[in-house]
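Supplementary Methods, section 5.1.

A reviewer requested that the exact input to the structure prediction be made available. We therefore reproduce it here, unchanged from the version used in the analyses.
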Amino acid sequence: MTEISTDMLEMGRRARAAAAILAAATPQAKAQALTAAADALWNARGDVLAANARDMEAARAKGLTGAMLDRLMLDEARLQSVCQALRDVAAQDDPVGQVISEWDRPSGLHIQRVRTPLGVVGVIYESRPNVTADAGALCLKAGNAVILRGGSESFHSSRAIHAALVAGLHAAGLPEDAIQLVQTTDRAAVSDMLRMVEHIDVIVPRGGKGLVGLVQREARVPVFAHLEGICHVYVDASADADKARRVVLNAKTRRTGICGAAECLLLHRDIVDGLGAQIIADLAAAGVELRGDAGVQHLPGVTPATEDDFGREYLDSIIAIAVVADIEGAIAHIRRFGSNHTEAIITEDDDTAARFFAGLDSAILMRNASTQFADGGEFGLGAEIGIATGKMHARGPVGAEQLTSFKYLVTGDGTTRP
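The structure derived from this sequence is encoded token-by-token as follows.
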């Protein structure tokens, strides 16, 4: 195994030192840093958009898909949203030091369980430059230092955004090493981060199946991850037609290249030729490629699905469609093909909705709402560092609170144990 590079070890050392300072930083200082970063980012929007244009030109030359280009692209409206996310995180209650619970013991001890930073977070991501701001902001809010390693596609955009974050830290008198960006596209830096157990406390990968799979296979540092966003929408026999049509169309088409986009539509067998046909026509009119099982292949625009079409994250204007007998059939299908990310049911039947919620163990379950809401900002977290689908520590949208651990504070009065 190759040695970890001197440059990465130095980044880790500086991050660890910054984390010690951040652990005791005031909520006011952290909020000031994020607000100042938002101002700096907006004031530098011309430079940021010019950097993004360079990335977009290179990405087109490399032949990136439309969905990947959409992830990479920044315009003034998207940049304004990034700035607003920084301000939203700044305005949140600071999680560090929050008392989760407290109790007294017969021994006379008073015990508190209190939130505390994780320490140093490593974030490895691909072509979404907004992750630079979101991850930096959330880690800072939670009192963590962070080492960011963006993908080569977003290299110039990420550097421009990172400069604004550093300006915010400087304005608040916080260590600029609190948010570091790896300044190379060399993939060896990723391998180094995965092995820096003395310098990084947790790795968060955000990207496609290849990246996340690599991280999960090779990391010696603990990982918060989701492998894929294979999101399902099940339309029940009791579904309201208007709700179903609006929700399914939004879930698939609002943005096809995000992990919360619906990738599979499940239809109760009793609605296939009625409401199901209307939904399928809506999707076809929106330009969605329809790949269905035998139960829907008689409908216009539907081509036969293969086994590989189910359990597949398209991140494109394609959807798989299957017919199920009932709620139990829908649950069984999702258990077989899902990725424990986000599933939605469209139903007016409370008992059916309760069965759906109880029968599935995905990180996010929804009723009569689009899977595109699977987003930390929409959950009121200000932003997210990703959607965690594992069961240890963090699950669902990972915001500032999920980037903390806890410790016990125990107070006695000369108390001894007999």
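The mean pLDDT is 93. These observations are discussed further in the main text.
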